[in-house]
Design goal:
The protein is of the alpha/beta class and 186 residues long. It has 4 helices and 8 strands. This is Phenylacetate-CoA oxygenase subunit PaaJ.
Length: 186
């Protein structure tokens, strides 16, 4: 079952994407979060949902019942349904018969929620990772160039604001002439 609800707790800002609350997760909740977090992203299968930072939490709501909170990369993200179904399937296979996936829109997902491991995987896959945005109200990054994931050059040009998905732009490196996707900063 997939539902949408507001969230009240802010994200941690650590690239984990997990919402912290006043109560620590139980050992079983942490295990189920690892299982759900290991689900590959349907649009970027090189990344897991944990790498992407969209998995906000897993809570046991009763015997054999779990509620998973998930924040899409943007409000109209078409991959949410596939993510939810894949999470349900993974937790069913792990012995949880009743799984509810709740989509929360606040706090909004940010590219800062992508883990360092996720950024490394994007680069190895040939996608330029988004530049870190830093803390809200903090200093603005001076590095405006996008680094080519193939050769490392910062001499790149924008070909299209949209690529294979709405969250990526298409760029080309002037040094190696290879086109590449750039995961846009949000």
């Amino acid at each position: 079952m997939v539902t949408t609800a507001p969230a009240s707790a802010p994200g941690t800002g650590t690239g984990t994407g997990m919402i912290t609350g006043t109560q620590a997760p139980t050992a079983l909740e942490a295990e189920l979060a690892r299982v759900a977090g290991a689900v590959p992203d349907p649009e970027l299968p090189v990344l897991t949902l944990a790498d992407l930072g969209v998995l906000r939490g897993v809570h046991l709501t009763g015997p054999g019942r779990a509620e998973v909170t998930l924040t899409p990369t943007y409000t109209g993200c078409p991959a949410v349904e596939a993510m939810s179904a894949d999470i349900e399937q993974a937790l069913h296979a792990h012995g949880v018969p009743d799984v509810t996936v709740v989509t929360v829109l606040a706090p909004a997902w940010s590219t800062d929620d992508i883990s360092e491991e996720g950024r490394r995987k994007l680069t190895e896959f040939g996608i330029a990772p988004p530049r870190p945005q830093g803390p809200p109200g903090g200093p603005v990054a001076l590095t405006l160039a996008i680094r080519c994931p193939h050769c490392g050059s910062t001499d790149t040009e924008l070909l299209s604001r949209f690529s294979s998905t709405a969250c990526k732009a298409l760029r080309r490196c002037a040094a190696c002439r290879e086109p590449f996707d750039h995961f846009k900063e949000l």
